[in-house]
Amino acid sequence: MHFGRAIVMPNLKPPVTTTARALEYREEILRALPPGSSFMPFMTLYLTDNTSPEEIKLASMDSR
Predict the structure, then answer these.
(1) 10 Å Cβ neighbour count for 45?
(2) Looking at the 3D structure of the chain, how many domains does it have?
(3) Domain that residue 36 falls in
(4) At 5, which helix (H) or strand (E)?
(5) What pTM, to 2 d.p., does this model score?
(6) What is the largest CA-CA distance in the chain?
């Protein structure tokens, strides 16, 4: 049995700190899946003191 969903951690080097980078990373994950896979990655951001409220709002509005 395989998992259909996962929370994807943002602690890469460099960390995933923007919505744009999270969406790029999501595409990398989806490209690695076999054809027909229904796996759904739930993307997260690595929050820092420099993460703006606007970036958090932008990330929360994207349903991918």
Answers:
(1) 19
(2) 1
(3) 5-61
(4) strand 5-8
(5) 0.89
(6) 40
